[in-house]
């Protein structure tokens, strides 16, 4: 049986960082992760940051792939004839890659590895 590859990158699906092969999943129980919340103002600031994140997903055309479960939601990138979306596995950055190009090894946003987790 031949292994399936993603047509835009030519990579095996399990190695491909695109968002069709690896859809972004948001875990609501981690809404306040990566924030040092010491008081109610810190919580409000963290939630505002997450609101900006969700508004950006909406602006970029992302959709929910199904109903929101107890504590998580899976998002689907928008269809495009010109580009595809890549999810940096190290830092979670979203990259817009022109079709026909291979995603870079190093993320232009955070500088970490796009294909595998790097602390």
Question: Order of strands across the widest beta sheet?
Answer: 1-3-2
Give the fraction of residues assigned to helices.
10-25%
Contiguous low-pLDDT stretches (5 residues minimum) are none
Instruction: Tell me the span between the first and last alpha carbons.
Output: 35 Å
| Radius of gyration, whole Å | 16 Å
The count of helical stretches stands at: 1
**Approximately what portion of the residues adopt beta-strand conformation?**
15-25%
What structural category arises from helix and sheet content? alpha+beta
How does this model look, in words?
By secondary structure, the protein is α+β, with helices and mostly antiparallel strands. It is built from one helix and five strands. The strands form two sheets. The chain has a three-stranded antiparallel sheet, with no helix packed on it. Strands 4-5 form a two-stranded antiparallel ribbon. A hairpin with a 6-residue loop joins strand 4 (83-87) and strand 5 (94-98).
Task: Outline the secondary-structure elements.
Elements: E1 25-27, H1 40-59, E2 63-64, E3 72-76, E4 83-87, E5 94-98
Antiparallel strand pairs: 1-3, 2-3, 4-5
């Amino acid at each position: 049986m031949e292994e399936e590859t993603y047509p835009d990158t030519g990579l095996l699906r399990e190695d491909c960082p695109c968002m069709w092969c690896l859809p972004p999943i948001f875990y609501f129980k981690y809404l306040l992760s990566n924030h040092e919340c010491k008081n109610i103002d810190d919580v409000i600031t963290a939630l505002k940051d997450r609101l900006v994140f969700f508004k950006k997903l909406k602006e970029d055309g992302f959709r929910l792939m199904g109903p929101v479960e107890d504590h998580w939601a899976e998002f689907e990138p928008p269809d495009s004839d010109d580009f595809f979306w890549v999810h940096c596995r190290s830092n979670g950055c979203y990259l817009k890659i022109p079709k026909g190009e291979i995603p870079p090894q190093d993320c232009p946003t955070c500088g970490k590895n796009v294909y595998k987790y790097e602390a």
